[in-house]
Write a structure and sequence with these properties.
Length: 95
Amino acid sequence: MEAKGSIPGSHDEHRVMFYGLSTCGWCRRTRRLLEELDVAFDFVYVDLIQGEEREKALEQVGRWNPATSFPTLVIDEEQAVIGYRPDQIKEALGL
């Protein structure tokens, strides 16, 4: 499993950043939902990165989600959806 990357999709109107853990079932479901909706997004599995890179990722998650729980989706650097919330994700993306 890649620690970070980009997934292309036909819905690329929003900048979507997915923060998750490789061992998290809710993270897998959230990623699967984004892929099924054909949403373009960037991702980071925080447990698969180390050092300064991990600290920066946790800092970014903490800006939107002080509990630093996963999954955390940041949309357009304007809003976040915490946890597996299909309806909130679709609404935030206008789908």
